[in-house]
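Re: beginner question about structure tokens

> Can someone show what the tokenized structure looks like for a real chain? I only ever see the sequence side.

Sure, here's an example I had lying around. Input first:
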Amino acid sequence: MQKENSLRFVLIFARIALATAFLSAVVDRFGLWGKIGDLGVSWGSMDYFYRHVAKLTPWAPAPLIPVLAWLVNVLEAVLGLFLLFGIQLRMTAWLSAILLLIFAISMAAFQSLKLALNFSVLTCAACAYLVYLTCTTETPQGTRQTP
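And the corresponding structure tokens:
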């Protein structure tokens, strides 16, 4: 019973951590944490985020950059809310892990591995995959259970 409660706590903690990471990034791009140059602000506006997306996708033509930036923004907002409220948790966790791995690979390939490590993208991807695996535990009756 204590192990099961601990697992539930860790799952909830992991979901909240991932959700807040996604949602914090989204609100940063709208300037809600402040403007670029303020302490802790990575983007401060969608214009600065477009520049970041362009660095991570040098293969993309310039007119596609805003589309990719908004796609990422919407995906992160939806994934963050779904993780927070436990909606389609297994699929949400899997998509979160995939998205984060894409970010990590792009950061490592087109900027530096250190950037991916500094932003803990691999850690977040592993956390998302852990949530995914936890959501597929088998019960003695053989049915799937989400702790």
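Each token stands for a local structural state, so reading them left to right follows the chain. Helices lie at 2-29, 46-56, 65-85, 89-110, 113-118, 121-134.
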